[in-house]
Amino acid sequence: MCVASAEPATAPGSIHENPGVASNAASRAECGPGSMPETGLQGDVPAEDRNSGRSRDGYSCNMSQIGGYSGRGGGITSTNFEHCSYVGSFFPGNLLGPAQGVQVLDVSDPANPALTATLTEPAMLAGTWESLKVNTARKLLVGTGVPLLTGVGLMSVYDISDCAHPKLLNPGPGTDLGMLLPITNHEGGFSPDGNTYWSSGTAPGVVSAVDLTDPANPRVVWQDLIGLSTHGFGITPDGNRMYLSNNLGGIHVLDISEVQRRVPNPRVRQLSQLSWTDGWATQHSIPVTYDGSPYLFTVDEGGSGGVKLIDVSNDDEPAVVNSVKLEINLPENQDAALASAAGGSLFAYESHYCSADRPVDPTALACGWISSGIRVFDVRDPFDVHEIAYFNPPARTGDNVELANSPHALASLIGVPILSTPAIAQSIAQGQFDPGQALSSRSGMLALGDISTDWCFSPPEWRGTTLWATCADNGFVAMQLENGVYTPPADQKTTVGS
């Protein structure tokens, strides 16, 4: 198989840095009737609640659970199409449960989701990490195999015209173990027209464009090493720009128009780079427009970076113009965050994957915020964001063994919130970290964590005033927004970026 590589892609383009650390949180939601509000800082699950069992009741504000399907856990990210949800798999735990591979749920009745199929091709058994995506235009589901952080070669493509019973389209390349594709896998996503699936590995930062014009024969049409470590991305509606995440904190702005047009031996040009120190493990970007001007909502997975609003009206000069954080993410609260998150494993109160409710003038943003649960923000004015609702599902404390498909359960062999380390270091450097406040009854839990919160990784999907999401421990959850806090726009369309 011939793979085209474009040497100019490695040229950095213009380089920019945003050195500041955002110090303001989105204003709190005003919780109406039926809520079970948080007991501490916005986004925090205090040590007292974890130790007493209060966190096993969960927390809610203007949002409640309609129904769910826990299975053996929800993997890392999942995706949806029509009345179905596809629950990601996590290796090796998914192999231990009765429903191996990717679980297919019929959610026609959100109060009672039902398992209708399992996808057990090699890519699905190997763990799908953050690669499981749907293209609605072509009714395709794709996932790649990622056993641990990075995988190679495996990719499965399904026809989901009958969403509850996906049909494998590529029994050969990507599925047959003797016909592996020359790709690295961690995260992936579609160009809007569904003709290209882009796969990215974490380290090294190899990005591959896989042509799916003929889904039975996926083939790599472009590939290159973009940086030391890359992650997810967002692609503009015309398919011509990719905003690729830099795991060290930042984005690469790439011109992918030649791949989009299927120019022979295409080039991908790197137009600019933007880096920052406020957060790292940058996850993905959601291209949107406000009043005709292009912006990104870009999510940091580590370091309490939250969600950044980036002005991309000039390809050569992307600029951070606002930030969305919770109180627990602020520099002055990193000591409190460490006190409560100890024993909760690698992640604490980090943002992970978000979705806007439409690409043009979005009115709301919903995010999986790991230990802080599902958070919903009013973003009609992206420079004045306020939270309107949240749902942090009941902790599954002590259920580690039952949750074979939960990365949280396995990762809880480690108790320390490692991905928060840069934010803690910044707080110390700024003189805002009080070691006394960082100590709690949980501080000695360096190993064998107690999963006293859930980890919500998936991008929530908008369904009128309901949201669908998966969390690592509780699996699939259908939620209802309440108390009149959200009115769906007529052109509501879940927008994730790829």
Automatic annotation (TrEMBL):
Residues 47-57 have a biased composition (Basic and acidic residues). InterPro entries: Quino_amine_DH_bsu (IPR011044), WD40/YVTN_repeat-like_dom_sf (IPR015943). Gene3D superfamilies: YVTN repeat-like/Quinoprotein amine dehydrogenase (2.130.10.10). It comes from the Bacteria. Residues 1-59 are annotated as: Disordered. This is LVIVD repeat-containing protein.
